[in-house]
């Protein structure tokens, strides 16, 4: 499975995975109904999400499968069954070398599950109109192989060598009074079951001429080994279906989870990325967008609207701390990632621009191995963005140029926002340089600039909605009061600490 050819992609996982917490996201927000074990789909789903397809046709192919699974309960149940059989097969193969019971029976159990899997593929997906048709074709192709014919004969031999007819005579107390043998018939339809003459010849050859002893158990052991060798290539092909099966069922699980929380999801439409010197394409719109990462904290997110904005716009978000700016950046990045992967996006309606790459930078934390200071790290972040983007790339930056003094930070912010349009990416950026953002909004040094601010309610508290314009205050006083850092609150804290320390004799 690890050597399966990956989907071709231009995205680099390191540019978005650490900031979007995909491991926690898929484990919590993408459950698989009827999964054979907890977290059965997390590993393959995350691996697929890290490599969004490079071609829009692949994304549309996946969307068509999800639509058909959503509208066809029979196909959905069939895929759940396939996923369960694949999980069971993988578990049995993993534990085979340490099985504490009859290893022959263990192998027979594996082959029995595999045969059921093939029959499910061939028989339950014949009506599919989407890419699920491939499952039916795969199952039918395997059924037509010599290896599968041998498998069926072996299972039939193991479970039906012959038929014995008996007559039971019961007493009034329900106990058996007499048992009569009426007939014994060999299973003549299975070529693996030898005739009486063949059994006599085999007995003479093995027992008398060679001096060996061989019973029915030795026959089934030999057959199991032959069958495993014959079906191994096709069994491996089937195991590779575990990733796609997990992908689609987890996507439907995310849809069901969101709806249970009163949230809407959708399959997005995509416009082509702009060309360097071409016209502006279709706008980007996200209606009732929410951040699924909030579900990890037990919070039901408040949906908001973004757009419509031009496909190569630079959208600057301003507003108070804890107003939802960083969360909406995460939500927009997740919508792009999930949408291009072919899954439902966390929005009621989504019209996206195809992004050849995505760079998400929501935090700039210092590390022990970091050579540069905070300013150097910020400049490195900016340079990395310019190295990675191309027309249509989505760039998500939180608190751009906060690593230096305000005047230098404003100069760097202006440099970035005026040069980025030359490569025509999609940009979402937050800043606390409110005066500078207001001047940019007034002067418009480049036409691609768009400005959104956190909407405030009558009580000056954030509504977690965004409206056009630039915020006039970061509401630092409100935030400080909420976390207890006003002068009055700190003076009260100091008084209590002094009293406590004096009582201890400090």
What does this structure look like?
It is a single chain. With about 500 residues, this protein is of the alpha/beta class. The strands form 3 sheets. A 6-stranded mixed β-sheet has the order 8-9-10-6-11-12, sandwiched between helices. The protein has a 4-stranded mixed β-sheet with strand order 3-7-4-5, with helices on one face. The chain is elongated. Helix 2 (about 20-30) crosses helix 3, helix 3 packs across helix 11 and helix 6 packs across helix 8 (about 145-160). The protein folds into 2 domains: about 15-160 and about 235-245; about 265-475, P-loop containing nucleotide triphosphate hydrolases (Rossmann fold, 3-Layer(aba) Sandwich). The chain has 17 helices and 12 strands. A hairpin with a 5-residue loop joins strand 1 (about 160-170) and strand 2 (about 175-185). The two termini are about 65 Å apart.
